[in-house]
Amino acid sequence: MMARFIIRSALDVQEAVRRIVTAEEHRVPFTTVKRDGRRIVATTTVGPIRFDDTMVIADVDVREDHARGTIIKEGPVLLGTIRFAVTATEGGCVVGWDQNIRGGRWSILNPLLRAVMFAGYRISLGALLR
């Protein structure tokens, strides 16, 4: 499930990358985020349904005016790779986001999952990068 999008932010490159890789300002309803080194676990709970989304910050290269990074989704529900690039602009930065994510054991849900993940990442990244 490929999804690509671009977000413009008033943040500088370093702050945008910091927010992406630490998820400290992550504010998504029903989701809590815990970080342990390079590993991030986002736990979503809706009524009796709960699932953990485990991610590892695999590679990040930050320069003064640009950055690139890779995040690996390790499951158990979501698997795949996210790549992002951040480029400085006169008024802040532009973040390019490219995700290839699939459902782990529930591949039949991939079409629905794609729509939810695209919207979810767009909304959460937009809020994170404000």
From TrEMBL:
Stated name of the protein: SRPBCC family protein
Biological source species: Flaviflexus ciconiae
